Amino acid sequence: MNLQSWILLLVVLALVVWVAAGLFRRHRQGRGGCNCCSTTTCPIKQLKKH
Amino acid sequence: MTLNELKIGQSAVIAKVGGEGALRQHFLDMGVIPGSEITLVKFAPMGDPMQLLIHGYELTLRKDDAAKIDITPCQQCVNGTPHQHTDQPTTARTEHPGLGEEGRFHKKDEEHPLPINDKLTFALLGNQNCGKTTLFNSLTGANQHVGNFPGVTVDQKSGVIKGHADAEVVDLPGIYSLSPYTSEEIVSRQFIFNAKPQGIINIVDATNIERNLYLSMQLMELGIPMVLALNMMDEVRHNGGTIHINELETSLGIPVVPISAMKNEGVEELIEHAIHVARYQEGPRREDFCSPSEHGGAVHRCIHAVIHLIEDHALAAGIPLRFAACKVIEGDAMVIEALQLSENELNTIGHILKQLEDERGLDPSAAMADMRFSYIKRICARSVVKPVDSIEHKRSRRIDSVLTGRWTAIPSFLAFMCLIFWLTFDVIGGTMQEWLDSGIQWLTAQTDTLLQSWDISDVVHGLIIDGVFSGVGAVVSFVPIILTLFFFLSILEDSGYMARIAFVTDKSLRRIGLSGRSIVPLLVGFGCSVPSVMASRTLPSARDRQLTVMLTPFMSCTAKLPIYAFFTQMFFPEHGALVMISLYLLGIVVAIIAAFVLKATIYRGEPVPFVMELPNYRIPTAVSVLRLIWDKGKDFLQRAFSVIFIATIVVWFLQTFDFHLSLVDNPQDSILASLASLVSPIFSPLGFADWRITTSLISGFMAKESVVSTLTVLFGSSTALSSILTTATAYSLLVFCLLYTPCVATIATVRKELSNRHAVAMVVWQCAVAWCVALVVRYILEMIL
What we know:
- The complex is a heterodimer.
- Helix content of chain A is about 70%, strand content about 0%.
- By secondary structure, chain A is mostly helical.
- Chain A is rod-shaped and about 40 Å long.
- The termini of chain A are far apart.
- Chain B is built from 33 helices and 14 strands.
- Chain B has a 6-stranded antiparallel β-sheet with strand order 5-1-2-3-4-14.
- In chain B, helix 5 (about 210-220) crosses helix 13, helix 18 runs antiparallel to helix 25 (about 620-640) and helix 27 packs across helix 28 (about 690-700).
- The longest helix of chain B is centred in the C-terminal third of the chain and has 29 residues, at about 755-785.
């Protein structure tokens, strides 16, 4: 593979890692939500944490 | 005589409200109390439920439930319209009481301000469909979707009030009372008790003030600083009515601010009052609405006797005393349990309630509702000049004569549905999809040329063009169709027609064990299953909610459209519309059969009563509709460039390399082929036991749109795909895609809304149903063709 192919491959892989990290972060934030709410800033969820 | 015997146009006075438990309390909370005037407007096209006019708003009720309500004919009522009361608002000028304000009314030596850095939290509470979300958007500058259907807000949203970084407002679901009838009511009152907000912003629909103030009075009993936002005042004035704010504020003992949330009028003043009462902890000046002189003071003495009896328990449980006493009298099991009363105290309360019944001639719940509504009537008589009939209401009546008319309702509904699907899939959405598809193809060709000019290696070229561009591009081209369908669903909801659809279809849905309110989640299911599952939260019984959720995935969501369009173009180019319509209809037919099966086995019993408010029709605002389209478009594109992008890359990787991570010449030697081949035999009876199809179905679990992108990546050309499927097996595959497990986002929502058990059951149930129906369809088609 030539240099430009490697660069392009790295760009795509970086994009994949970035998107996957974003999805994982959102998944973690959404975890533990109560049955009444799906929002991550839900006050009920905050209550549950306490 | 009972309410179900009333003739159309006749009015009557309610004599007795029967029934029992939470349902009866809900009747009372909705204003169906002895002494109220009620008029029968019409029956739904199939003869049930009834549309009634009470306290100036329209309520739906089934005949079976109406049979529990005793009435006496009202001699004074003119046909169709309750008679006019002789009470007239006072003409004497009342001085502004200045509650919730600085200045001469605020005494410095009596103030107890919270520390300046303390964060203020406000609960935004009000009846359903009174403009809460519109006000929330005005207060916070947020972009929440607003509908014209009772119960649009099914989850709580919080936001910082504009210009006040230390003040946060929480938009709670719309409720009619603080009785535990629906899950929204339980959630809202639990929020007030547990989160202990510093203030309450109670939004009241000024066009229907009598019913709205019923909740306000219960909120005032909580003793929390509170401001009353009198919304839609512009509509009241426009129809020749008015509300004497000074008089109302004096009577209620809380600041009253007239606003128009939609026009953003009065919102600044509302914020100032809310922050003032919360900062200085100025609670309602009045919590006691019972009068020693009313009906011999029976209710008054009962409430105060219970207050004294439970004072220590309420303090220990952290429940406001007046509120706790009222709920004990109403028999609220949750409050009674929380108070942990001794047997002796419970016996004493029983004797007090018996005395109340004997003296008042009403049971305790009815007596409490009557006390509240009597107080509301008295203050409205002093402060409200009602328009005889609003322009909006007259307009709604005229429209309803067609849309819910006996012979026109069902044809209108079917005509609207056909029109929406035709415009979505052909005229608007279909045309725009072709344009977008051409654009994507042009972009792919340009990128291909560019990569070739850079002499990019075949592997990376394949990753970019065959992987990313083919996969993501195939899905993105369906954005116009999806947005067009959401546009029309939004119009249905915002205009108020969705509530009429529920009214019209209630009797039919009852036959399959659902209530008319279930139609909303099911219709939303044609857009996306995630909001559809969430919308089922407005259903008041767990049985109805679970049954609706289990049927929702049978409604073909827009994410499945790319699959249908892809196969239709390839296998049924001449009969595209027929195939599309047949799939949608098949989904509905299977849902009906599934409903009968579930109703006869797991979800036995009757659906909950259909007690719902019918809002006036409103012209949907462009901002609201565009906001929804923007939200849905953004959500879809985010999914396309995240989940589908990753899935495409993973599929490309797995089909390009073998287990030794060496490039494969033949995709059949790839990792993907080896893994999918393990599952493929299951699909052998259905006629598509190919590993590439199995892979695409597995990727469809991540997001339905991925099925098309995966097929495009794996098969490369349409000829390769058409060579392994016949017309019958292609249609069988489409049926399997229509019915098999919903995407992971829907399953996650089901898990949140119901339980892990339901989520797992849904995956297994849907796959089993899909496999069986696809098998039957395949053999039927093979016999015919």
